[in-house]
Amino acid sequence: MDDKQKKRPAVVNGDGGIDGVLATAIRNGEDLCPIVRHAFEVGKPEVLVNQLRSIVKKKEVEIEELCKVHYEEFILAVDELRGVLLDADELKNALSGENSQLQDVASSLLSKLEELLAIYSINKNVAEAIQMLKFCGQVLNLCSKCNTYIAEANFHPLVKTLRVIERDYMQKISIRVLQRAIEKRIPAIRSYIEKKACSDFNDWLVHIRQSAKEIGQLAIGQTASARQRDAELRTQQREAEEQGRLGAGDCAYALNVEQMEEGSFIKFDLLPVYRAHHIYTCLGIQDRFQKYYFENRLLQLNLDLEISSSQPFLESHQGFFSQIAGYFIVEDGVLRTAGRLLSHSQLETIWDTAMAKMTSLLEEQFSGLEIASHFLLIKDYVTLLGATLKRYGYQVAPLLDVLDNCRDRYHELLINEFRKQISDVLENDTYEQMVIRKEYEYNMNVLSFNLQTSDIMPAFPYIAPFSSSVPHVCRIVRSFIEDSVNYLSYSSHVNLYDVVKRYLDKFLNDVLNEALLKIIHNGTLGVSPAMQITANIAVLEHACEHFLRQAAQLCGIPVRLVERPHGGLTARALLRATQNAAYIELSNLVSSKIDEFMDLVNNINWTAEDPPQMGNEYINVVCIYLDTLISTAQLIFPLDALHKIASGALEHISDSIVTAFLCENVKRFNLNAVMCIDNDLKALETFAEDKFRSTGLNNAEKECNLRDCLTEARQLVNLLLSNQPENFMNPVIREKSYGALDYKKVASICEKFKDSPDRLFGSLSSRNSKQSARKKSMDALKRRLKDFS
């Protein structure tokens, strides 16, 4: 076609053969637009119009010629058509006659046919009426059942019946009156069902709130029973381990199956909830019931979380926590068994609300408590509540965190209460050795605290090395440990023993040790009470091991872990320091008593004219006192402490003798006075030697003999009685025989020493006599000491 369009302009431009080309295009039905456009582009549209007119004329001529050729045939066709019309009229008249005859014959049959059709219509209407009556009878039967269910308040089949009527019958009821009546009554019945179900559910709400406390108490009681069984099993295990540790024999372990219970959950009635939820679900308004349930139960919880201001929390806390426990046990049952009535997120929201209020309430109540036992009562019930609800999947860590945060407050109250008990026990003690007359008393006061010195049962009456305050203090410490473990147990502590040990250390340091120091330093003690206190402290220091074992047993850890190195109490070191303070106080009291007996400045005639025949009278009193002191100490002190007490007393006597020579009131003394003191020293040395052997100190591998405690006084007396006292300046002799003496003291004492008695005219009678060698030596010693100083 494009090739033809390219050739056409050449033909047009030549104005030759254009009619043939244009006619061919028209005959073929081609598009004439390119030819027309070209004609206008070359500016010759008139030529194109003339050509088109020429073609039209040619076609008209062709049509006329065609009509002339077929004219005769057309005439013949018209004549044939006229013949056909005549035949058709004849056929129509024949058919009309036949029709009249047929209608005459069939008129009777048509009347019968109409009668038959009427009968058929009546039969159909009757069948439809019967079918409709049967259908309406079924509907009315269902309506009657609904009335019966309403009368019996049997809502579940009532709802099902209504659903059947609506689904299967309502749209098929052809009686409009009946259909309208049923359509009007069904919403009323639904509303009635909803109100009745809601009323029954409200009754359940009231009932379950009243029963929640009983449910909670029963569940908490089961937890307490399980805890008690666990404690008994742990006790049996500890006893078995202790027997095994002591080598008491084989330990038999048995499992008491009868006491084991499967996880028994509390039973309570949720049938009204199930029924109401199912009815609301069948009514298609379950969302409304879920919202109603959640809002009302949350309202009940808020009421349960309010405490009465008219009753102390200590008296109402069990009922309060039991109510909360019962509430959430019921909610757990609803969550698990009531379908989608309560979701996990809703229950978590309720629990978080309750937890926030309970923790705030506990913190407020704990801050106002002033008695540790009240603290412990509330704590025990809180831990039981936590353990109970934990069984149902609730997170109770915030409750335990409150208890942990208040543990310092509890122990502060506990320490203050036991501080007064410790103080009263120590102040009311007579500090005399405890006399135990019966075996049960021995078991109660000695064996129960591991205070025995031998595994052999003693003969009764038994005189213990401690006073009555020691077992009393041990009982108080045991009570403190038990109360501390009771508070800290069943909490979030990973290492309970370390925490209990820390508080035990604090109690022993801040309470027991301070009370002992107060008794020691109050200035009213005598020698015997001070001696008994010193012995008591040693026993208490030894009892610290028992306290640790008891804490370990109560915490449920093996005793062997307590006996490891560096696992003891720091209080033992403080008690040892306190014992040293008691030793010092005892030594001071003994020294004061000895000073009263001796009073050497007044009891000795420093310028006696005649040589003494025996020692001074005071030395017998001192020996008697020392004998009593050492004998008493021997009953209650170990050999180390006994040696310390005896050596301290003898050293003080030695110091007193040296101090007497140095006293300013003693202006001078002679040889007879020295000889008198020598006799006293001999008596003391004999006493010390006897006691060293009789008390068994000689078998204790002691490097220092009791007699050695008098060394300084003995060396001084020996020096004053020596024929050659100037040998003191010889380093070898001094180191061997006078090593305990001090230069300055010797110089001062020697200045006071006069070698002759103070007789009347004694100096005149001896004026021309030859000075003795002793006097010369003494004078030489004085000069050399003076030069040395």
How would you describe the overall organization of this protein?
This protein is mainly alpha-helical and about 800 residues long. It has four domains: about 20-150; about 175-235 and about 265-395, no CATH class; about 410-585, Exocyst complex subunit Sec15 C-terminal domain, N-terminal subdomain (Tetracycline Repressor, domain 2, Orthogonal Bundle); about 605-755 and about 770-785, Tetracycline Repressor, domain 2. It has 29 helices and four strands. The strands form two sheets. Strands 1-2 form a two-stranded antiparallel ribbon. The protein has a two-stranded parallel sheet with strand order 3-4. Helix 5 packs antiparallel against helix 6 and helix 8 runs antiparallel to helix 9. The termini are far apart. Keywords: Coiled coil, Cytoplasm, Exocytosis, Transport.
Number of helices: 29
Number of strands: 4
Radius of gyration: 64 Å
Helix content: over 70%
Strand order of the largest sheet: 1-2
- Poorly predicted runs are 1-16, 248-263, 757-771
Throw out a few tags for this protein.
mainly alpha; 4 domains; two-stranded antiparallel ribbon; cytoplasm
How do the strands and helices of this protein lay out in sequence?
Layout: H1 2-14, H2 18-27, H3 33-41, H4 45-69, H5 71-152, H6 155-169, H7 176-246, H8 271-282, H9 286-304, H10 313-337, H11 344-368, H12 372-391, H13 397-405, H14 407-428, E1 435-436, H15 439-445, E2 462-463, H16 469-488, H17 496-520, H18 527-555, H19 559-562, H20 571-598, H21 600-603, H22 617-636, H23 639-662, E3 669-670, H24 671-694, H25 711-721, H26 731-737, H27 743-752, E4 753-754, H28 762-765, H29 773-788
Parallel strand pairs: 3-4
Antiparallel strand pairs: 1-2
Helix pairs in contact: 1-3, 2-4, 5-6, 6-8, 7-8, 7-10, 7-12, 8-9, 10-11, 10-12, 12-13, 12-14, 14-16, 14-17, 16-17, 16-18, 17-18, 17-20, 18-20, 18-22, 20-23, 22-23, 22-24, 23-25, 24-25, 27-29
